[in-house]
Amino acid sequence: MNRIINPKFGTIKLDDMRLFAAVAQLSSFTKAGRALDVPKQTLSRRIAALEHSLGAQLIQRTTRSMQLTDVGVSFAARCADVVLRADEAIRAATDTSDEPKGRLRVSADPVFGEAFVSGIVVDYANRYPEVELDVVLTRRHVDLVEEGFDVAFRVGGEDRAGISSTKLMPARVQYCASPEYVERFGAPVEPNDLADHSCILVLSDGTPSRWPFKSPGGLAMISVTGRLRFTSFSMAHAAALAGLGIAIFPEFKCANDIAANRLIPVLNDWCVDVGTVSIVHATQPFLAPRVRKFLELATSNFAD
User: Fold this and answer.
1) Which of these, 209, 219, 229, 225, lies nearest to 271 by C-alpha position?
2) Cβ(264)–Cβ(176) under 8 Å?
3) What is the CATH number of domain 3-94?
4) pLDDT in the model for residue 206
5) Is the CA virtual torsion 129, 130, 132, 133 positive or negative?
6) pTM attached to this predicted model
7) Which residue intervals of the chain bear CATH 3.40.190.10?
8) Residues 6+ apart with CB under 8 A from 13
9) 139 close to 152: Cβ distance less than 8 angstroms
10) Which residues of the chain have pLDDT under 70?
C-alpha cells in the first residue's frame, strides 16, 4: 500500500488520504463509503487512524452529523491535490497510448475567452474526441487546485508556488470611438480631455472607474465618468460602435474594428501595456496527456 513517511507524523497511507478527501467532499461517511465501496465502519476506523497519525482532529462527529474542523478543511484540500497528482502520475506512467482521455476543465476571462479560446477549444475537441470539456468563462480568478481546473488563461500570469505559467501574448489596452463620434465631438488630445467626453464604462462592482495611462512616473490611473455603465464588454463594444462614446478595450477586442475603420483609436501616445496573457496550470511532475496536449495547442496557436 502506498505510504507517505514523515518523521514527525509517522506513516500516512495515501489510501487513507484518498478516503478522507472523499468524506470531506461528500460531507458524509455513508455517501463516501458507497462511492468508494468501503464499509462505513471501515471508513470511520481508517479516518480515526489518520487523525491519530496526524495528532489532529479532522472531523467533529455527532450521532446525526459530521463537520470538518478548520484543520480538516485545510487538510482535505491538500489531500485532494495529493491524490490527484498521484492518479495523474500513475496514468502518465501506464498510459502508453498517450491519447488524451477524461475531463478537461478550462477557465478564462469572458472577453478573452470569446475572442481566442473558442477556436482553441473547438480545434482541441475535434482532435481528441475522448476528452470531455468544461469551459468556464468568468472574470473571477478561479483556484486551480481547490476548484478542480486543469488550465486557466490569465491576464498578468500567476506568480505563486505550485502554479506554472507560460506567456502567450502582450496584454495592451486601446481607447477608441466610432468615426461618427469623433466627427461630432472631436478626439481627446490628452487624458484630462476625457472630462469633456462621454466615456463608456465597464464596471464589475459599482466602484468608480479609473483608466490607465502612461505618465512620467510610468503609470497613472485617471477617474472617468459617463452615462453608460455596463458589466459587459460586449455591451460596451456595441455602444462604442453605435457612436455613444469613448471606450477602453483590450487590444485584441477592437483590433478588427480598427482595421475595418468601424472604430478609431484615440490617445495612442498614452496607451499602456498592462502585462501579458498567460496560460497557467498546477505544477506537476507528470502532466496528463489531455492537459499537455491542450497546453501545446494553445501555445502553438498564439505563436502563429
Assistant:
1) 219
2) yes
3) 1.10.10.10
4) 55
5) negative
6) 0.56
7) 102-168+276-303, 171-273
8) 1, 2, 3, 4, 46, 50
9) no
10) 1-11, 88, 90-97, 156-159, 204-208, 274, 304
The predicted pLDDT at position 8 comes to: 46
pLDDT digits (tens, 9 = 90+) for 72-124: 999 988 888 888 777 767 666 665 557 888 899 999 987 778 777 888 999 99
Closest C-alpha among 210, 181, 211, 221 to residue 197:
181
Range list for CATH 1.10.10.10 in the chain: 3-94
Contact (Cβ atoms closer than 8 angstroms) between residue 12 and residue 50? yes
CATH number among 3.40.190.10, 3.40.50.720, 3.30.160.20, 3.40.605.10, domain 171-273? 3.40.190.10
**Cα separations (Å) of 43 from 50, 59, 92, 259?**
11, 13, 29, 63
The 10s digit of each residue's pLDDT in 179-200 is 999 999 999 999 999 999 999 9
CATH number of the domain at 102-168+276-303, out of 3.30.1330.10, 3.40.50.360, 3.40.190.10, 1.10.3720.10? 3.40.190.10
